[in-house]
Task: structure prediction
Amino acid sequence: MAETKQEMLNEVLQDLDRLTGIEGSAIVSRDGLIIISHLPTRVGKEAFSAMSATMLGAAETAMMELARDPPERVLVETKTTRMIITGASADTLLVILCRYNVNLGMLFIQAEKAVNRIKEILG
Result:
């Protein structure tokens, strides 16, 4: 039996969640709507997804003003947490929450693999 796109996207997030130090992940639309979420229960998912899309959109606008290439990702860091927001397709974003001590190089590699899978799923 063929899996639905929603089920396949859920598997992408499940694979990310298995990585050490990952605290949550989500696929959101560029309009800021939740497509699928594996975020902690305490997170207001609607506001979180809207703000994530806004942050990447603001970074894209800033880089356009500088006549530079669009950003590949936005990285937000606190003393304990990192959040990575990256374009996953023309219409979607991948957001990953992780502990601060996660190896960023490895995380970027895993995020890129997830983005490629999302692109395949969504066409």
The chain has a mean pLDDT of 93. The CA atoms of residues 59 and 71 lie 7 Å apart.
